[in-house]
Amino acid sequence: MTAVDAAARDWTRATAAEMADALAAGEVTSVALVQAHLDRIAAVDGADPSEGVHAFLHVNAEEALATAAAVDADRAAGVAMPRMAGVPIAVKDVVVTQGMPSTAGSRILEGWIPPYDATVTRKIREARMPILGKTNMDEFAMGSSTEHSGYGPTRNPWDLERIPGGSGGGSAAALAAFEAPLAVGSDTGGSIRQPASVTATVGVKPTYGGVSRFGAIALASSLDQLGPCGRTVLDTALLHEVMGGHDVMDATSLDEPVPAVVEAALAGAAMDLTGVRVGVVKEISGEDGGFQDGVKQRFEESLDRLRAMGAETVEVSCPSFEYALAAYYVILPSEASSNLAKFDSVRFGMRVEKETIEKTMLATRAEGFGDEVKRRIILGTYALSAGYYDAYYGSAQKVRTLVQRDFDAAFAQCDVLVSPTTPTTPFKIGERIDDPLAMYLNDVATIPANLAGIPGMSLPAGLAPEDGLPTGFQILAPAHEDARLYKVGAALEASLVADWGGPLTAQAPEVAQ
Amino acid sequence: MSSLERSDVARLAALARIEMTDADLDRLSGQLAVIVDAVAKVAEVAGEDVPATSHPIPMANIHRADEVRPSLAQDAALSGAPEAEDGRFRVPQILGEEA
Amino acid sequence: MTTMTYAQAMDEFDPVFGIEVHVELNTRTKMFCGCANEFGAEPNTQVCPVCLGLPGAMPVTNEKAVESAIRLGLALGCSIRESSRFARKNYFYPDLAKDYQISQYDEPTCYEGALDVVLDDGTVVEIGIERAHMEEDAGKNTHVGGTGGIQGADYSLVDYNRGGVPLVEIVTKPITGMGDRTAEVARAYVATIRDIVRALGISDGRMEQGSVRADVNLSLRPKAVAGESQDDVPFGKRSETKNVNSLRAIERAVHFEAARQASLLLAGRPVVQETRHWHEDTSSTTPGRSKEEAEDYRYFPEPDLLPVQPAREWVEELRGTIPEHPAKMRARLREEWGFSDLEMRDAVAADALGLIASTVEAGTTAQSARKWWMGELSRVANDREVALGELPVTPAAVAELQGLVDSGKINDKLARQALEGVLAGEGSPTEVVASRGLEVVSDDSALEKAVDDALAAQPDVLAKIQDGKVQAAGAIVGAVMKATRGQADAARVREIILQRAGVEG
Ligand SMILES: [Mg+2]
Ligand SMILES: [Zn+2]
């Protein structure tokens, strides 16, 4: 590419891998990349929560440009650079960032500036990636639509009247709207994968413990996992390697090397899946209804593509999945009710001052938390309370064992398992807000992976014919085998992109400006 | 056969330190009862013989060496405090003493 | 309502009690973070995102604290669970940073033990131990305004330096059948725990600083009637008196509670199951939160931490480090050293057993070691208002000093001067003796000259001696001692005087 081409190029449309290569080749500066994205954010994100995509809660322009300038200067001086140095990134607001507001989408943390960095934030800084800002999310990651943010909903760039998924709707929408090439997400029951599915982006929930949770504001500690979000499988792999690895600050962190996911993504792009056994999970593949026709159709076509590349497909059954959603909605609220106790107005965050500390806590939490958070705290308090523990929390932990056993049996027959990521394409904002149970059903296919701690990926499977909106393809692998997701995902992506003529996000309508 | 009454919600909200008005209870109790009834099915499948899983990836004995790491400076520790005084976090009157 | 005495209460009822002791471990860092575990720092300077409960922070267990807890469990005769884990105890309180305490619940690391407690008269009582579990301490509230107490304060200030300090909580089984010795047993039990944690070196055991804290549960039940076994009489409602923080207070709290409950019961009024606060100034308790409105703690396994599964070999290795039971050690030492009861009791009270033992080990007799530590050194420690162990003198130095006396190099008086030099930092006893020139004058020619001088100065005395009034030699001895500034061996001086007078030898 000539210098003129590079200058004329709209870098927001490039992949992160392309940006890294262009930076290394001196074809573009990090400052130019950051500025292009800041301009894009200014153009489409909306000056006010009521308009635009509203993917960002905080734009970190000054620091991002300073980081970029330092990277450019060092690169010019010949200093050795990490591979992704200078490539901008957005960070879900659930991750604490020293010196930058971190609210987890909650009013109760409005204005809180953490005095420390999450391990993932530190790794991003060490990789010298400019942080563009903090992305919107359902409050404390409780939700599947980002409508439960304390700061107004994020809108899906494919259709601003629709939800971008949740809880990580901000990160996914930022990618789909070309406001950032990469983003950090967190996935407790599908909060990376489900938004990826409904925005035609890629998201991975690594094996539990594969990415440090230190500094990720906890929702449900035994389910939460941070992970990478991108527009391509390779980009996602590049970020996965930046984020992953052992951390002494997180006792649940895996003490093993980060899986070679970039290598796997590159291998998968050769589109040879000979010998790969793919299991289609009967209980979450849409056979039993509840799944949109177009979603099922794109899923079936994707299976055909896998077979065409040499994979063998079999149907497997995981009967306990019928109880997975219920178990999840016991375990998550229980752990969350305890994790969210610390928001008590004493050391940080909102305070509604009353005459006693007890009344102050009551009033602060009443005002600071939204309805979904209150619902789940009450539910969790109930499930853990004397006399109910065994029936609820205890039973849910047993269901968890059954889900793991189902996965073990399935993986004895297959290398990976697959399903549609979500039953439907993105619904309209407001459509399910008063029906929590209907909302919870969005996560039926993604939740089992969190209960079992196994890794999962969602990548675009094409648009549903009936509404022209994105559908997602989910791949699951055994614990520690994250690389398999990238190999199979990259193969399917290559096959699809060859027909689409480019990434699916390129087909998204231009966001009304 | 809803297992969760409005009065239960009021009691649980107090336990969880969330003040609830009558309107809050009206709005949330019905939804919560539906959810509780839906999730109660977890008790249907798992028998006595099924062990509980707390951690998805089985690990044990992850300890830290007894070595001092830097603490936060006092002003950083207090930086988020709604109110501070004399290097301490200030809170309104505490009634009743805890364990 | 008639007010009963403790003795009357014990006449009328059968007491049942139990004690929960919290021991603060002396690890370098806190239970779940790397903040220093030290008493007395500026407020909120030993805090981090973990122990401040900041959003996103996560705990990681301190290996040394686990080791200390297991060693304590072993010393209490407990079994060590193959797989134990932490749980969250959920309740809201401003000094509890996360609004849950990480503790152990249904799977404590140490369980089912028994501890022999030796009473003053030598009676041995076995106390059943239910469990010993790890947990974290809370921060500290300071109440401002009003009387400085929690009631009536205008507001409170919170310091989290103590938040997250490692604790082991030891819970006894219900203790029955102690009758009027209940208070004595309660006190002796806590004293034994304190001695054990000190002997293990896992805690400084200072009750006055709160590093050993006790909660005392007590209930009364009717005495069994003829033909009925006391074991078949159900327990009465109990009170739990919190934070009784001295041995004397434990005895007094039992006295007060027994008398209070007996008075209620005899008046036909119920005892309320409740938490009570101990007041040191009035030696009485007042009601706290009653158990009827107790919190529902909603315990569940701490999802941020993994099970503790100590290897059997490690546990056995730790078992090898458990010191002798303090009371049994005392009995053995008393025997070995030949101390009287009084001597032993004084040495225990002065916390001097270890010092004496080390001094004996360094090569002196037990009585000599006792004499130094309980005599001159106790006096100095008392003057300086420090503990014996804090004096700048080692048991080895004391043994060395006694060695100099035993070999006749110095006498007792010089030894005290040498000790003064040692305490002043002038060096070892031998060095001080040399530098201060304290050695006994043993060169006979110098002594002979001094004797001759003295005899010449007091011819009348010489005459008396020669007359057979040998006791008159004392005046000359005194003069010689004075002339040699006390450095002469008085016995030798006397011999020379008698020689010179031609009376003997
Ligand atoms: Mg306790
Ligand atoms: Zn700390």
From TrEMBL, chain A:
InterPro entries per UniProt: Amidase, Amidase_CS, Amidase_dom, AS_sf, GatA
GO biological process, one term: translation
The enzyme's E.C. designation: 6.3.5.7
UniProt KW keywords: ATP-binding, Ligase, Nucleotide-binding, Protein biosynthesis
Domain Amidase: from-to ranges: 33-485
Annotated segments matching region Disordered: 145-165
Annotated catalytic residues: 92, 167, 191
Top enzyme class: ligase
Molecular function as annotated in GO: ATP binding; glutaminyl-tRNA synthase (glutamine-hydrolyzing) activity
GO CC list: glutamyl-tRNA(Gln) amidotransferase complex
A Pfam family reported for this protein in Swiss-Prot or TrEMBL: Amidase
Signal peptide feature range: none
Catalysed reaction, written as an equation: L-glutamyl-tRNA(Gln) + L-glutamine + ATP + H2O = L-glutaminyl-tRNA(Gln) + L-glutamate + ADP + phosphate + H(+)
Family: Belongs to the amidase family. GatA subfamily.
Function, as annotated: Allows the formation of correctly charged Gln-tRNA(Gln) through the transamidation of misacylated Glu-tRNA(Gln) in organisms which lack glutaminyl-tRNA synthetase. The reaction takes place in the presence of glutamine and ATP through an activated gamma-phospho-Glu-tRNA(Gln).
Subunit and partners: Heterotrimer of A, B and C subunits.
Protein name as catalogued: Glutamyl-tRNA(Gln) amidotransferase subunit A
Gene assigned in the entry: gatA
TrEMBL record, chain B:
Enzyme kind, highest EC tier: ligase
This protein's UniProt keywords: ATP-binding, Ligase, Nucleotide-binding, Protein biosynthesis
Region annotated Disordered, chain positions: 77-99
Keyword Ligase belongs to the record: yes
Catalytic activity reported: L-glutamyl-tRNA(Gln) + L-glutamine + ATP + H2O = L-glutaminyl-tRNA(Gln) + L-glutamate + ADP + phosphate + H(+); L-aspartyl-tRNA(Asn) + L-glutamine + ATP + H2O = L-asparaginyl-tRNA(Asn) + L-glutamate + ADP + phosphate + 2 H(+)
Enzyme nomenclature, EC number: 6.3.5.-
Gene3D superfamilies assigned: Glu-tRNAGln amidotransferase C subunit, N-terminal domain
One Gene Ontology biological process: translation
Family annotation (Pfam families): GatC (PF02686)
A single GO molecular function term of this UniProt record: glutaminyl-tRNA synthase (glutamine-hydrolyzing) activity
Chain's role: Allows the formation of correctly charged Asn-tRNA(Asn) or Gln-tRNA(Gln) through the transamidation of misacylated Asp-tRNA(Asn) or Glu-tRNA(Gln) in organisms which lack either or both of asparaginyl-tRNA or glutaminyl-tRNA synthetases. The reaction takes place in the presence of glutamine and ATP through an activated phospho-Asp-tRNA(Asn) or phospho-Glu-tRNA(Gln).
Family: Belongs to the GatC family.
Subunit structure: Heterotrimer of A, B and C subunits.
Protein name: Aspartyl/glutamyl-tRNA(Asn/Gln) amidotransferase subunit C
